[in-house]
Design goal:
With about 375 residues, the chain is an all-beta fold. It has a domain of about 240 residues: 6 Propeller (Neuraminidase), CATH 2.120.10.30. Helix content is about 0%, strand content about 45%. It has two helices and 31 strands. The strands form nine sheets. The protein has a five-stranded antiparallel β-sheet with strand order 3-28-27-24-23. A four-stranded antiparallel β-sheet has the order 4-31-30-29, with no helix packed on it.
Length: about 375
């Protein structure tokens, strides 16, 4: 493996006006990257960690940057009826829209209550985790009105709803860590009212139940293709971030048999993820920010606690098979927080990554 092929293909710009993408989308004042797509096939950014991943790589497909100028991109969700994708720009408190037909990347909604995770229900309606201030899960009806699905549990406010999925039985499942109320960057600081950080289920009749209560800051979640398994990222896992697997009860109302399936195994950080039809995990990946416990002399009479890894070595999407074995990696110039399969054939992988939205066509299809 030649290190030269692994260097991020980017040039950091301090002024968003220098990026045509950012200026076009009206994103002045936000940081942006001038991305240079690779001209060679296959794209050296798509790494085969195990031969089993080769069938999912398209030889003549390369990573594309579709838009930039965000501050922390999250929660991509695809709408096949309209041929567009929405994603959250949490610190800027807005939802962004990428239109596949026109290629335009624009603001879809201002004052989005610090929206984080988004999904589409079986009726084609947007379901959103409002991450801070309102701290609730809402559904946008076809007429544009908002329906509050959950904002409290046992008489106390939710923490900061993070990611959400809808099962085929129309139940809504979401995670509720504290990220959105830990500071002022992704909303407003507040004291958690819940004693634990839970995974919740909203039944068809609207009843809210806590199905998992022993994870520290649960994050991304998804079901297996047959919906017999629920997978959840534990952001504050010990010692590393992990994906836990649960068996879903026959009635779909509870889970059991907690099993660690994937361990980040070091400074790598799991975030949001999607499962394809073969049961593989396509995981947002990046550096956790871990630093050495002892300081190192960095010159100028200063000592610093140096990071235990390099972001440029870890930013991207890591792919695991259904047994939890790493099989592939898509290297990106920015950390990927979450992703979504979209396009008419559900084989276009959209990657919400820090300041930008990227895409790559693959020989895999989203499970739902």
């Amino acid at each position: 493996m030649q290190n030269a092929t692994l260097k991020p293909r980017r040039r950091f710009l301090t002024n968003a006006a220098g990026s045509g993408l950012a200026a076009f989308a009206g994103l002045a004042g936000a940081q942006s990257f001038d991305f240079k797509p690779n001209q060679r096939y296959p794209d050296p950014s798509v790494l085969i960690l195990d031969p089993s991943f080769a069938k999912y790589r398209i030889y003549s497909s390369t990573v594309e940057q579709l838009g930039s100028g965000m501050r922390w991109a999250e929660g991509p969700v695809y709408f096949p009826e309209g041929g567009y994708l929405l994603c959250s720009d949490i610190p800027n408190n807005r939802l962004m829209k990428y239109d596949e037909k026109t290629g335009k990347f624009t603001v879809h909604k201002h004052n989005a209550n610090y929206a984080n995770g988004n999904t589409r229900d079986r009726q084609g309606r947007l379901v959103t985790c409002e991450h801070s201030v309102t701290r609730r899960v809402v559904r946008t009806e076809k007429n544009g009105r908002m329906t509050v699905l959950a904002d409290s549990y046992e008489g106390k406010r939710l923490n900061a709803p993070n990611d959400v999925v809808v099962r085929s039985d129309d139940t809504v499942w979401f995670t509720d860590p504290t990220f959105g109320i830990n500071g002022e960057w992704e909303g407003s600081r507040a004291t958690p009212e819940q004693a634990t950080t839970n995974v919740y289920r909203i039944a068809k009749d609207g009843k809210l139940s806590a199905v998992i209560t022993d994870l520290v800051n649960p994050n991304g979640l998804a079901f297996s293709p047959d919906e017999k398994k629920l997978y959840v990222v534990e952001w504050k896992g010990t010692p590393n971030r992990s994906i836990w697997s649960y068996d879903v009860a026959a009635d779909g109302a509870s889970v059991s048999n907690k099993t660690k399936l994937i361990d980040a195994d070091g400074p790598g950080a799991l975030d949001g993820f999607r499962v394809d039809r073969d049961g593989n995990f396509w995981c947002g990946w990046g550096f956790s920010g871990a630093f050495a416990p002892e300081p190192t002399d960095v010159g100028g009479g200063m000592k610093a606690h140096l990071p235990l890894g390099k972001s440029e070595d870890m930013d991207g999407v890591k792919v695991f098979n259904r047994e939890g074995k790493p099989i592939g990696f898509i290297r990106l110039p920015e950390r990927c927080a979450n992703l979504e399969f979209g396009g008419p054939k559900r084989n276009r992988l959209y990657m919400a990554s820090s300041h930008s939205l990227y895409a790559l066509y693959v020989e895999a299809h989203g499970a739902v």
